[in-house]
Structures
1.
Amino acid sequence: MATQNLDLVTPRVGSPRITVIGTGYLGATHAICMAVLGYDVLGVDVDPAKIDALASGRVPFYEPGLPEKLREALDAGRLRFTTDFDEAAAFGDVHFVCVGTPQAPGSHAADLRYVDSAFTELARRITRKALLVGKSTVPVGTADRLTALVQEVSPIGTELELAWNPEFLREGFAVEDTLHPDRLVFGVASEWAEEQLRRVFRPILEEGTPLVVGDLPTAELVKAAANSFLATKISYINAMAEICETTGADVTVLAEALSHDARIGGKFLKPGLGFGGGCLPKDIRAFRHRAEELGVGDAISFLDQVDQINLRRRSRTVDLARELVGGSLDGVKVAALGAAFKPNSDDVRDAPALDVARMLYLEGANVVVYDPEANVNAHRVYPDLDYVESLAEVVDGADVVLLLTEWDEFRDADPAALGVLVAERRIIDTRNVLDAEAYRSAGWTYRALGRPAAVEVPAESEAVA
Ligand code: UGA
């Protein structure tokens, strides 16, 4: 099938006008991409700083390719930003709500106050038939509750309809995942709502993108189930890493062998320091919490194990660092390579890298951190750690180096050149991305999660025999 060029076009006359409430990661990307697809879009947020930044062409977070798309949308005159909900209510035919659902303080539940507020503020101002579409990740049952709420406060009552359209974009690939998603999911309560969503996503559907239409609770559950599955897959291979560590087996070889089975597949089977970020950790906890509330907690109690396996990778890394420097981290100079929860992101929410750096610091290590994009955000969260601006500076005089986020810059570094800068050639590759042999040949003690301390190299005569 020929792929249509979506990065285009003339304004879509007669197409629905779109608002996007919440211009964080998800909302800003959605608003920008919808405008790039040719729709007239109004981005709305309660934070004037975000709105000012976006309106002046600046994306307030790191996402490859998004600044260029923002420029394109602004230049085409199809994208505007406001803090005014009255303007949003008057402008939009289809309103997407993309506000955050963080973990509630002191609980595993999702904090729904921003979602509730966005839907209510909008609904009480809407005076003509319109569709409200939730994109935020919410506990199952939220959309039904919100339907009752918005229809009660809206001047048009049941004429105001609600739909759910979960989002599956990954940070670092946000533009690609939004313009060319691997599927679309619509949760709807009427044919009219489905029709509106089909109009909004027409260019993407015309590409042949699979569409799954269900009811509201199913659409909400799809997102929780998808993120839970991904988290489970990562923790599965990391559980195997634990077994490998006590048996001398190599989890990277194991993972590769599993990946060739098409039923298993190699994606999200990368053993290492595990998952973090603003989605997977809080989503599995909120899902568990919701299942308990519904009386079906046993069905997904395994997600507690998934969470624990994931967190154990962090303490295992600290144990390995302690072991490698001879038993105590007190006063040891540690070079932490990476702070973001994954490469190509400046997001440090629940970042395994930063958590390990913090744990080492609490054991008395002198931790120096370098992340190509996340230093500023990391410093905001952990101002006690030292931050430097280059790879050369971070490894300078280090007693042990920890690769914590697999940026290309770290992956591509020359072990011999790094070796000249450190005090001791010791490295822990927590993401299993370095060439172990290249490091060992350059005189490094190389350790990784889930792999034996050193690969047995058979003597030459044995190898020939
Ligand atoms: C995740 C999902 O992948 C998206 O589909 C979803 O839309 C998004 O959450 C969301 O709910 O908004 P994201 O948080 O951007 O996306 O990050 P991922 O690419 O999923 O990575 C999550 C974490 O898992 C990272 O810390 C990464 O290092 C880790 N990971 C990933 C592994 O440890 N091993 C792997 O094999 C893959």
Note: Residues 137, 167-171, 227, 230, 234, 268-270, 272, 274-277, 279-280, 341-342 surround uridine-5'-diphosphate-glucuronic acid (CB under 6 Å).
2.
Amino acid sequence: MSKATVIAVDGPGGAGKGELTRRLASELGFKLLDSGAIYRVLAYAARKAGLALFDEDSLCQEAAVMDLSFEPTEKGVHVLLGGQDVSSAIRTEEAGVNASKVAQLPSVRKALLQRQRDFRQEPGLVADGRDMGTVVFPDAQVKIFLDAAAEVRAQRRVKQLQSAGKEADFELILSEIKERDERDRNRLIAPLKPADDAVVLDSSELGIDEVFARAMEIIKSRISI
Ligand code: C5P
């Protein structure tokens, strides 16, 4: 198994992991794993194939065969399913809720484990998810748990949607965030929680520049870069 450096960044949805991990990967010249996108694509592919999101056996088969790839572009990483760009389709609130449903199934998580570990390559990997530091890369050299209050995360999501010209209902988004948190934190397998050796960083009152600076301090205190 590769021992390349892994910086694991876990935390609830909307805490700012996506932006932080993109910046870290670009600063360090490391590869990037958006593990949430894998769960999102699986749920999306399952819906397209008419599968129920609790049909564990069929979902595992889909997980084994789905043709998923990530394509870096100037505007960010595009997610391809069977060569088709599904980046926007998997970013809806519904896709997030569906992803968290398939993600509670133990054999589905197992079926996706190796796919995620394969991203561990030299010169290093920044891994974004819920169980990067606890399950997928328990020996990661750096573990950060990025948290933020649910209200703050909902407000950020509202702003994001509005700036994309979309309608956004704060109360609805907040209740979806809480529902997803509840499922992610309380599931039996790989629940969302900081690894014992993770540094917890609360971004509720920090801007992205400050979060990035603090994350770099944590990284420099753990590895030589
Ligand atoms: O991070 P993102 O919001 O894209 O993740 C979507 C869902 O996928 C999460 O709510 C969670 O249920 C699931 N997930 C997971 N383990 C990961 C990444 C995501 O269970 N490592």
Note: The chain has a mean pLDDT of 95.
